[in-house]
Design the sequence.
């Protein structure tokens, strides 16, 4: 892939357009993840924050605020807040999932221990609240606190739905709305709120973030059965971890008795053998579950773009629309 | 112990004086720990919230607000906030300590799993912020967010100081100020802030909570070597878990070569044998470490009472002073 092509990805164009603000966000993050007394905190945080995430969520906040003509300083704080919340949830997720790798690097719980991941995650949560308190906007505080509650609620729901073949598409949607879309939608919404926008604009920004996040997570779950090395996903992780995602829900709904027994053995009872992943992928294909999942991801991407309609036309708006296309480009 | 005697304990007199407000706090806690979609959340929370804690921290907030003549509704929200933060830290502590029991009952991480404890703790943290946002007071939000950050910072510091014989009394003080006193002082301080008190009063309330919390934790750490069944503490837990607390720091500072080797073997290397706890207690006695620790706890209790001086005289003020005495009564 040529450098020119790479530079044309929407999230990279966004990063270019917002480069000055992103530099300020990164400086603020580094400043606030310091702890005079407990050096373990910046060690663990740096491992994750510096690991080359795309800063997608903070960019959404910066873009939303700029799109709304905000000219104050606080979108920087809010973007850093959003990244802190995201980093805290990653630290706690890796404890919960007992993960050994994230973004191709060993996880913090493996390098240090679960204790450090739990406590440093708590420190970042608290730090995120301190950052947003500085903005002095109570509506912003309400939105981001509610998003944090929705994230943990979604994760708990995922925990209790795991390995349960009766999980419905409705519950799946609630889980991914919590664990992924809630922070996307809060990130865009607070950009509009801090800029003092009217309700229609704020709602449009929230709906964009919500739909983008849902599309993003459905694609992620689809690639777990449909990915290639190029997508950077390990095909079969969710199957081995017995997670019930949209493709499996659709295939289970269409299963005959023999197929149902297969899903019960592999997902519910966790008795997996060589060749089971291939059988699973075969069943997803047979019932059109991968295609149907792909269609839903594209429909949510479309909804994200439609939500942008009420916003004033601008270069940033085009980039946000392109971002919605890019999310599903991995499965086109 | 007769019922009359029991009813005369200061925290019980406080509970009597604040009974109407405590009922409202308990109702609010039950309302907010509900989750429509993830029933695991109220299950785990109820296990801890209903387990008969003394509600000491919320009572501090209620007492401080009432003492300052506050007549609005929000001290109830703040008291519930403080209890939510406390409950969230207990859930995460039990994961970090790999505890099996708390208050004589199996811990949540044992009854459910570590995952549920981490995620439900996160939900309660987020819920605590939602509750305080409702109060609409930015200074209160700043104080409680900062307290949450200080709590996790103290816990991380404790983690890195654990099993390290070079831990100083200064680091010990910083750890307990974080893990225990920060929430006590924030609990009393926000009671004054919500009542719109001047800086001298707010500072007095904060200093009272800080000194009370420090005294409380030193007593707790002392009882781990000095307790009896009547105090409800298991003597020797900290020693077996190789935690460095004030009595040990003092004994290590006075140790000769042979004693130092004993502490290195038992605490640093964790090679403990039958009779080691008794040897440890003997060394603490020999160097006057228990007596010196006791004196420090009493001095902090004294400081807590002195901090109250600037506050207007009232029945509640007497109860808060008595509470400071009661904290050290367990070691008198």
Sequence:
């Amino acid at each position: 892939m040529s450098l020119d092509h790479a530079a044309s990805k929407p999230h990279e164009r966004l990063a270019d357009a917002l480069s000055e603000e992103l530099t300020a966000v990164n400086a603020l993050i580094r400043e606030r993840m310091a702890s005079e007394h407990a050096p373990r905190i910046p060690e663990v945080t740096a491992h994750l924050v510096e690991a080359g995430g795309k800063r997608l969520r903070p960019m959404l906040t910066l873009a939303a605020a700029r799109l709304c003509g905000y000219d104050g300083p606080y979108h920087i704080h809010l973007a850093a807040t959003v990244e802190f919340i995201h980093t805290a949830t990653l630290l706690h997720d890796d404890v919960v999932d007992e993960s050994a790798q994230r973004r191709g690097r060993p996880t913090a719980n493996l390098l240090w221990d679960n204790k450090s991941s739990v406590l440093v995650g708590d420190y970042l949560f608290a730090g995120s609240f301190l950052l947003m308190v500085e903005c002095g906007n109570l509506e912003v505080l309400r939105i981001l606190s509610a998003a944090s509650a929705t994230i943990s609620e979604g994760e708990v729901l995922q925990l209790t739905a795991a390995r349960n073949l009766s999980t419905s598409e409705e519950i799946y949607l609630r889980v991914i709305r919590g664990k992924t879309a809630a922070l996307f939608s809060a990130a865009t919404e607070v950009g509009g709120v801090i800029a003092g926008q009217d309700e229609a604009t704020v709602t449009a920004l929230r709906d964009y973030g919500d739909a983008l996040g849902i599309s993003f997570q459905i694609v992620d779950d689809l690639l777990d059965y449909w990915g290639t090395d190029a997508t950077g996903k390990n095909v079969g992780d969710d199957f081995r971890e017995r997670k019930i995602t949209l493709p499996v829900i659709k295939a289970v709904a269409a299963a005959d008795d023999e197929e149902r027994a297969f899903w019960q053995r592999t997902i519910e009872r966790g008795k997996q053998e060589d060749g089971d992943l291939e059988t699973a992928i075969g069943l997803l294909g047979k019932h059109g579950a991968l295609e149907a999942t792909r269609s839903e991801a594209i429909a949510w991407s479309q909804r994200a773009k439609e939500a942008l309609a009420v916003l004033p036309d601008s270069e940033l708006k085009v980039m946000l629309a392109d971002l919605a296309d890019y999310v599903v480009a991995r499965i086109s």
Q: What stands out?
A: Chain B has two domains: 7-136, 171-318. The domain at 7-136 of chain B is CATH 1.10.600.10 (Farnesyl Diphosphate Synthase). DSSP finds 17 helices and two strands in chain B.
